[in-house]
Amino acid sequence: MSHTSEQNPMTATRRMRERRTRAARAARIRRRAVFAAAAAAAAAAALAGGAVIALGGTGAGHAAAGAPGPLLVPAHASGPDGTVVTYGKADAPHTLEVYEDLRCPFCAQLETRTGKAMQEPADNGTYKIEYHLATFLDDRLGGSGSRTALAAAAAALNEGVDKFKQFHDVLYANQPDEHKDTFADVNYLLELAARVPGLTTDSFIKAVREGTYAPWAAKVATAFHRSGVTGTPTVKLDGRSLEAFGSSGAVTPERFAELVKQAVA
Questions:
Q1: Mean of pLDDT over the chain
Q2: What topology is assigned to 51-264 in CATH?
Q3: Cα separation of 168 and 38, whole Å?
Q4: What's the pTM value of the predicted model, to 2 decimals?
């Protein structure tokens, strides 16, 4: 009898510990399930809406952290604090605002499918294009591809707006999978830049290799965050959203032309 009475307290303690362990394990499983469900819902919403949503950050913080040195604004930058790239005639009667992340696959789809149709009205003076660029995919996926590519694009802008536009188009035409941080490799960016006639000057190469415009890229990312735009690509004509990208992907060039015609009528 005395032997049984000595074991009971130990058995009760062991059972209590086991119950606590099971309860803690169940709580961890519930937390993981909630997180997984939220992540899945966010991904589904992004795919259905045709945009990458900046969940939990915009990239501005990482960009600032990785951007030592003085702030140098590239020549030909425009807008508030020189954080906008304007393509087209400055006195055009309308403005097309394009919000993009150079690492964003949805932006690449829009640019490769509809980009020429977007550029044509800027070339003929119907509107000017204002590019607002983000780096939030570096936050979401890790790496520095968005920031590094944006700093290289700034070096192209310093050479000329046309050089920026051509380099911008080459980047999207050769964009790696967003989960691969290939744009963080300056050698790859310089290889792509060589496809733009006259771009790879000594000053351009030096700026790309040294990250001269990394602080500017951080400032541009901060401006994107303050714009209130939460996903890319976002396209606005005279401040009103243009449905250039929907649940089935980027609109056709013909459909984009119709949207512009309706909006400026």
A1: 83
A2: Glutaredoxin (3.40.30)
A3: 33
A4: 0.77
